[in-house]
Amino acid sequence: MKIARLGWMVVVAWAACVPWTALADEPGWIRLFDGRTLNGWKAYERPENWTVENGAIVGRGARSHLFYIKRKFKDFEFKAEVMINPGGNSGMYFRAQLGPGWPKGYEAQVNNTHRDPRKTGSLYGFVDVRRQLVEDNKWFTQHVIVRGNHIIIKVNGQVVVDFVDKNNTYTEGYIALQQHDPGSVVRYRNIMVKPLE
């Protein structure tokens, strides 16, 4: 009996330390990152700028975009836990087109203290968030919900963008992570998608 109780205490202690999505995924969510490898991901420029460290995808160095290439997405939810360094700049792309350079697609900005005035949570080029919502070097959650031309972005559960793109600029594409510049170091973990089609 004491051994069973000790085992249960170990499980409870372990659960308190595990990231929020690691215990039990909600129905319909698909993990895009296994926590150990870059299987399913491809960078068309500077693939050496992407590594896996301590259960996170890490981007550092010159501009590069890491695409999840196993499938395109149209209507979906896309969320990840993110950490970025002071002065760092990154982004979570969606409905993006494959290839080198700056991807054609939507970008949910990741930028707390970079000189770019568009901060974390901005829908880059469409809706600007000008205030800093999260601290550097701390994990936060960014969650994108896309249905047709309606785009919602949440940061730590708070809706910061609720936008209808009347031009239907991008209708389908891939998910990608951005490494913006040599001064940026960004980390992504618990990267998940829930198709809504």
Give me a quick take on this structure.
This protein has 197 residues and is mainly β.
What do these coordinates show?
This protein is mainly beta. It has a single domain, classed as Sandwich (Jelly Rolls), CATH 2.60.120.560. 8% of the residues lie in helices and 43% in strands. The strands form 2 sheets. Strands 1, 3, 4, 6, 9, 10, 11 and 13 form an 8-stranded antiparallel sheet that branches. The longest helix is centred in the first third of the chain and has 16 residues, at 2-17. Residues 1-24 have low confidence and may be disordered.
Question: Helix and strand layout, with pairings?
Answer:
Blueprint: H1 2-17, E1 30-31, E2 41-43, E3 50-53, E4 56-60, E5 64-73, E6 76-84, E7 90-96, E8 106-110, E9 140-147, E10 150-155, E11 158-164, E12 173-179, E13 185-195
- Tell me the number of helical segments per DSSP (H or I, 4 or more residues long): 1
CATH class: Mainly Beta
User: What is the beta-strand fraction?
Assistant: 35-45%
Beta-strand segment tally: 13
Main features:
197 residues, mainly beta, Jelly Rolls, eight-stranded antiparallel sheet, five-stranded antiparallel sheet
